[in-house]
Design brief:
8-stranded mixed beta sheet, 5-stranded antiparallel beta sheet, elongated, binds flavin-adenine dinucleotide
Length: 374
């Protein structure tokens, strides 16, 4: 006889951990299956650690709503549980006239999304705040910040465990089959193949989440769930620059990302990045030949930097629903009941602002799980 559980979560990134933490509050038997040796080794530890305000996304999108809600929940969570963060504030800068018009649209978008503390800055106002930044105009977002995402991951993991969640590491989910009112979840570990029956399956498999949906029987081409990988590289800047700029500085956004930004971490180190290049395979190396591109992008608004002060640092890969040149795509967070898969909850395309939105996403999924048991 196969073991029977209530909820199987596939993937122990920040979203799987937060979801486990949320739903383990009840009496349910929750298991998290993770193919790596421990939690948080993929996108959740390869990002900018920025707590976004919620400016960029169309109003009423999940990205906008869950970012605004998640930001406020995340700051509270950090305060309550001693997770380090800094509300540094952020300035989105315009380096040209076109970009100045773009900023005005962004400002309006942010206000529509409920980000109420934004201020449009003239060149003089911006200079007063950040004398070393060169730009024609800016938007000040005081509620943007950075956090220690590793401590957040550890906190969510230990809390979920304390509440009874079982974590099974080194175990890759390789099959999902609907059988009666349950799913047979098949997995592979060092010992071979094994299975459990679960009433609810939550797919938080990040870069693999489209394939997990396909394994369960969803036609991902028809559903629009196929992911594109979009790589973001970072370069670090010499420590002599540390105190030249105090806020996060972002350019006007690009098509696939938020643009190469200046980010000073909690440890004071300064990073430039991430870039946005669509790639076919997952490879976290940083291509040193991209240094000139980073330099050119950042030099536009940070005139003091020198090429030789950039060093390749790290990279992450965005699980994007939006292919090259395509328009906005929202997070997919769906209970697939209507598609004929009651109890299957898919989270696909959880790119930025996924980290910020984490607590709000977990609540949203928690409500779906409650419906499955009512
Ligand atoms: C370059 C970059 C910068 C970013 N910057 C920010 C930022 O500043 N602020 C912000 O809010 N967001 C940011 N994000 C987005 C944020 O990092 C993600 O939204 C978030 O980390 C997604 O977490 P996740 O749990 O969905 O995915 P992941 O962390 O990728 O976790 C998925 C897990 O599923 C596991 N898995 C996959 N397949 C299987 C399987 N078959 N069986 C078992 N386990 C499996 C994987 O091993 C992995 O551990 C950034 C992303 C990138 C790439």
């Amino acid at each position: 006889m196969l073991a029977e559980i209530d909820v199987a979560i596939i993937g122990a990134g920040v979203i799987g951990l937060a979801t486990a933490h949320e739903i383990a509050q009840g009496e349910k038997e929750v298991f998290v299956f993770e193919k790596n040796r421990t939690f948080g080794l993929e996108t959740s530890s390869r990002n900018s650690e920025v707590i976004h305000a919620g400016i960029y996304y169309p109003e009423d999108s999940l990205k906008a709503k869950l970012c605004v809600e998640g930001r406020s929940l995340l700051y509270k969570l950090c305060d309550r549980h001693d997770i380090a963060y800094k509300k540094l504030g952020k300035i989105i800068v315009a380096a040209s006239e076109n970009e100045t018009a773009q900023l005005e649209n962004l400002y309006e978008q942010g206000r529509k999304n409920g980000v109420e503390d934004l201020t449009l800055l003239s060149q003089t106002e911006l200079k007063k705040l950040e004398p070393n930044v060169e730009a024609r105009a800016g938007i000040l977002s005081p509620s943007s910040g950075i956090l220690d995402s590793h401590t957040l991951l550890k906190f969510l993991y230990s809390q979920a465990r304390e509440k009874g969640t079982e974590f099974v590491f080194g175990t890759e989910v390789v099959g999902i089959e609907r059988m009666g009112t349950k799913y047979r979840v098949e997995m592979r570990d060092r010992e071979g193949i094994s299975s459990v029956f679960s009433k609810v399956v939550i797919n938080t498999a990040g870069l693999n989440s489209d394939r997990i949906a396909q394994l369960a029987g969803i036609d991902i081409a028809k559903a629009g769930y196929r992911l594109h990988y979009c790589k973001g590289e970072y370069f670090s800047l010499d420590s002599k620059y540390r105190n030249l700029v105090s806020r996060l500085i972002y350019p006007a956004p690009e098509q696939a990302g938020h643009g190469i930004h200046w980010r000073r971490g909690l440890d004071g180190r300064v990073l430039l990045g991430p870039s946005a290049n669509y790639v076919e395979a997952i490879d976290y190396s940083v291509d040193e030949t991209h240094k000139q591109y980073f330099y050119n992008s950042a030099k536009r608004f940070l005139p003091f930097i020198e090429l030789e002060d950039l060093t390749p640092e790290s990279a992450g890969i965005r699980p994007k629903l939006q292919g090259p040149g395509e328009g906005f795509r929202d997070f997919v967070i769906t209970h697939e009941e209507k598609a004929g898969f009651p109890g299957l909850i898919n989270l696909i395309g959880i790119e930025s602002p996924g980290l910020t939105a984490t607590p709000a996403i977990a609540r949203y999924v928690g409500r779906m799980v409650d419906e499955c048991f009512n």
